[in-house]
Each structure stands twice: as C-alpha cells, then as structure tokens.
Design brief:
Radius of gyration: 20 Å
Order of helices and strands: HEEHEH
Number of helices: 3
Largest sheet: 3 strands, antiparallel
Number of strands: 3
Length: 77
C-alpha cells in the first residue's frame, strides 16, 4: 500500500513539473481572423492559415498574422 501511494505521488509530482513547460509557448494563436466585425487584431485563435481561411470563407473577413508574432523581437542564437 505504501509503495502504491509513493508511486502515485511521484507520478503526480512529475506531471505537475512537466505541465507548465508544455504551456510555456502557446502556438494556437499564430493567425487572426480580421475584418469589420472582428476589429484589430481580431479573433486570434488559429494555428494554421488554412484553419483561419476556412472560418473566413463566405464572410467579409480575412486572415492575417498575429501582431504579437509579426512584430516580436528577433532572437539570435
């Protein structure tokens, strides 16, 4: 019984440490649905340009890159 509790506690601690690292760089907001109805920067919840285009299809909206990524500072390695 003690071994099971220790194993579960170790697993929970490992998951708690790994979870914030996975959320450090969100990638689901690269493209924004923009237009009269959405304003600027618009609805920025799209991972790919194709997803954004599919949502904009049939409306007066268009897709653009999220300003957070377009105007971010370049990183040099």
């Amino acid at each position: 019984m003690r071994r099971t509790i220790l194993t579960l506690a170790s697993f929970a601690a490992l998951m708690a440490v790994a979870a914030p690292a996975a959320q450090a760089h969100p990638t689901n907001d690269r493209y924004c649905l923009q237009g009269r109805m959405w304003g600027y920067p618009g609805n920025c919840q799209f991972t790919s340009y194709q997803q954004c285009q599919a949502s904009a299809s049939g409306t007066s909206a268009y897709c653009g890159i999220n300003p957070r990524y377009a105007y971010s500072q370049q990183r040099y390695y």
